[in-house]
Design a protein that fits this description.
Helices cover 47% and strands 6% of the residues. It is mainly alpha-helical and 103 residues long. A two-stranded antiparallel ribbon has the order 1-2.
């Protein structure tokens, strides 16, 4: 048995799997319709609302500093002095809000 290294000589796959199955006209390439008239096909990309929102969030995050040093210093001072208190109700409220924002 001989197989070509590039895999094109394999016979265990149907031809549609090897070639992609559907031949489409490339962007700007002409194609003839059933009526014989020539039409130009173009490719288009449409972004979902989610993709647009994620792109906006990504841009906003890129503008933020990696660490808010002033906040870190203030929290460190509160922990060192014993004044830092954990509010479980507030944490739960913010977790629920996060879940609602993500859905």
């Amino acid at each position: 048995m001989v197989d070509k290294i590039n895999g094109y000589g394999r016979t265990d796959l149907p031809a549609s799997s090897r070639s992609g199955g559907v031949k489409r006209a490339e962007q700007g390439e002409s194609a003839r319709s059933a009526g014989g008239e020539e039409k130009t096909r173009t490719d288009a990309v449409a972004l979902t609302d989610t993709a647009v929102r994620l792109k906006r969030i990504e841009a906003n995050l890129a503008e933020l500093p990696e660490v808010d040093q002033a906040k870190v210093d203030a929290l460190r001072e509160q922990v060192d002095s014993g004044d830092y208190k954990v509010d479980g109700q507030e944490i739960a409220r913010k977790l629920v809000q996060l879940e609602q924002d993500l859905s």
